[in-house]
Amino acid sequence: MTEQWSVPVWALVATTVAVLLLGLLAAAALVAVGRARRRAAADLDAVRRSAEELVARVEDVEHRLARQQRRESLDAHEYVITHVGEEPGAPSAAQDGQDGQDAPTVPAPLFADLVLRESAVQAASLAHGLRRALAPETRHRIRFEMRREVKRARKQRRADLRAARREWQARGRADQAEPAA
Fold this sequence. Notes:
Elements (H helix, E strand, L loop, with lengths): L8 H68 L16 H4 L11 H26 L2 H45 L1
């Protein structure tokens, strides 16, 4: 190489430094843009959550208002029947000063009879259920199903044991074959 260059060295160094500075500035700008983008995405998510909460609140208020309006409309047209079986113009017992003690009652012997009949029906149904559950046919069927289930479980355990043993032996053969290779 010759000592004479067509471009001065200081111009070459200055250009290189300028390019490096521009590269650093571009990288810093990219990092700042990325951070701003992440912050904006987080803010957007927060705004969306807030908007969803507000929508849920508004819907709740609308539902409450609709229920209240329905109640008010029902209350406005609601009729209460206070006297059943009386003539429209006849004075009621409450108006006469009576406190309505004429409630229908069941005599004691009839009440006892009803209670005993109910208890007898329940006892008879319990006895019938026990008799059916403890019948020889039912016990035989249960015993048969239990034996069949025990046999199936044993068979399954043996099959699982054989599969595990085969897998264990295959691993042992694979471990022995590895050092040779």
